[in-house]
Amino acid sequence: MTRNGGFEPVFCTIIPPHVLDRLAQSDDPARSGRARRTIQRDAYERTQRHLTTVAGAPAVALLADAEPGKPHRTVYDARNGTDLPGTKVRGEGDDPGQDATVNRAYAGLGATFELLLKAYARDSIDGHGLPLDATVHYDEEYNNAFWNGEQMVFGDGDGEIFLDFTNAIDVIGHELAHGVTQYTANLTYYGQPGALNESVSDVIGALIKQYTLGQTADEADWLIGAELLAPDVTGKALRSMKAPGTAYDDDVLGKDPQPATMDDYVRTGRDNGGVHINSGIPNHAFYLAATTLGGHAWERAGQVWYDVLTGGDLQQDAHFTDFATLTLKAARARYGDGDELQAVTKAWERVGVRTL
After folding, report:
1. Which regions of the chain does DSSP assign to beta strands (E)?
2. Is 319 a catalytic residue?
3. Is 14:175 a contact under the CB 8 Å cutoff?
4. Which one from 137, 174, 276, 284 is the annotated catalytic residue?
5. Are 212 and 141 in contact (CB under 8 A)?
6. Is the pTM of this model over 0.90?
7. Which pLDDT band holds residue 2 (cuts at 50, 70, 90)?
8. 296 carries an active-site annotation
9. Catalytic residue, candidates 92, 160, 175, 340
């Protein structure tokens, strides 16, 4: 259980609702049809997640022979159906097969496990060796990937707008990071706490990508989902932490709506109060702190963010100011009144989030 009174897993997708809504309005019936089917499938899975939560989700069994500090991954194949988890196609320690999607999912689960363990001494997403399960080839031309509170699920994309959702390791990390939040701060998935929930997942996803590539903060591109957009889409990625609002500007997708500072904060009732939109503000703050400090972002800046997420003081309904204030407290507690505290303080100042 979390200190907030229990797990309340939410259904979290990587493609924001506003993007799918835009595609669903396309004049191209094939394109709009795929988007509408994805929206309908998301709505179904979201409802199933809610019903499971109300009824009481079954506990995920830890394997009796599981070795502490070692991943236990299982990848399933839905074979373009929607029954979960599907047919088991690769287990922990199995050799790679012929299906590159399966292999990428397996590798992404492992990379997430490794960063959490090596950087933060966290044994899987729950801290206690939780098995990591993923299903690939979900549905037909399904334009999304999601964490449903129990496992990862990946669509193949339609090949026109979005490519295979296992292509981007930061997307795999992003969705699994929702599990980390689920088992720690359990941030409410609406408004500013929801945007923090999304931002924490973007931060961890970016760190996993950088860790895997051995990149410093200055070397990284700070893009989320750069490998997902098909070649004809005018854009670089789903989101940019370096420059929110610039990830794409496409005739079909529209323009990236993320703000970089509180001056452009978006007030909306859609997308759970704009959780995928306003997450650009804390995303940008992390980018500024990490690049100011330099070196590997998962070390000092990442450690501060992780300390806040797992430290026990972050409330479920935390707003940006609450989170920012706790990052200053965490930076001072771990590093004193040095460069780390100054970098974090200035980062929040630059994005217009006040601290208490």
Report:
1. 12-13, 73-77, 87-91, 132-136, 145-147, 152-154, 223-224, 239-240, 249-250, 254-255
2. no
3. yes
4. 276
5. no
6. yes
7. very low
8. no
9. 175
